[in-house]
Amino acid sequence: DQQVKQNSPSLSVQEGRISILNCDYTNSMFDYFLWYKKYPAEGPTFLISISSIKDKNEDGRFTVFLNKSAKHLSLHIVPSQPGDSAVYFCAARGAGNNRKLIWGLGTSLAVNP
Amino acid sequence: DVKVTQSSRYLVKRTGEKVFLECVQDMDHENMFWYRQDPGLGLRLIYFSYDVKMKEKGDIPEGYSVSREKKERFSLILESASTNQTSMYLCASSRLAGVTDTQYFGPGTRLTVL
Question: Is B23's pLDDT higher than 90?
């Protein structure tokens, strides 16, 4: 049973526009969330994270929003660039002494020139 | 910068062979992980280790074993490779002991079992 869900397997956006990638989770004990980007034939790279005590975290073109009541987070990329084309994974960390991350299945973003 | 290296980018093995995948990290991280990534299935955790000689099963440990004799090195072993183990294998490490921290990944090993 997927505890972290990325319901859109793929997304296509025009260059310069906003990309919004969504992630839903089921476990209210998750206390930290991360977004990773993955290019083909490479390992995932950490992009941005957010603690459950915040509702927004921004880093350059990337902003993550957290809505705890809805158990929903989203990653906004503004403006989108062709180099942003990749698979984006959402991951969540359980509270307490937990060494594992729970991963979504990923959303493939294509940014068209 | 954290660097996680994996011994091979591409590997082709035959069914029944014993396969070793090596991972080395250079940042003195406590935790190390092995995942496999398959289309439509995301990242699935095979095993992880939070200390030398310590290991814990992940979500899909069957058919795999691991070894961590030194802090910087974490090996994944396929005792008898099968075709359903054809996959992309990803190693990761994280800094803090006892707490899930940001994981840093290696480039991956694309394993094909014929």
Answer: yes
Q: Which of A9, A45, A99 sits opposite B48 (nearest CB)?
A: A99
Shortest CA distance from B57: residue in chain A: A100
pLDDT over 60 (residue A97): no
Cβ pair A89, A103 in contact under 8 A:
yes
The alpha carbon of residue B15 is apart from the nearest alpha carbon of chain A, in Å, by 23
Q: Which residues contact A53 (CB under 8 A, 6 or more apart)?
A: none
Secondary structure (DSSP) of A1-66: --SEE---SEEEEETTS-EEEEEEE--TTEEEEEEEEE-TTS--EEEEEEETT-SEEEETTEEEEE
Residues of chain B neighbouring A90 (CB-CB closer than 8 A): none
| The predicted structure's pLDDT at residue B39 | 86
Write out pLDDT tens, residues B66-97. 999 999 999 999 999 999 999 999 999 998 76
Q: Taking CB atoms and an 8 Å limit, are A93 and B40 in contact across chains?
A: no
Identify the residue with better confidence: A50 or B101.
Answer: A50
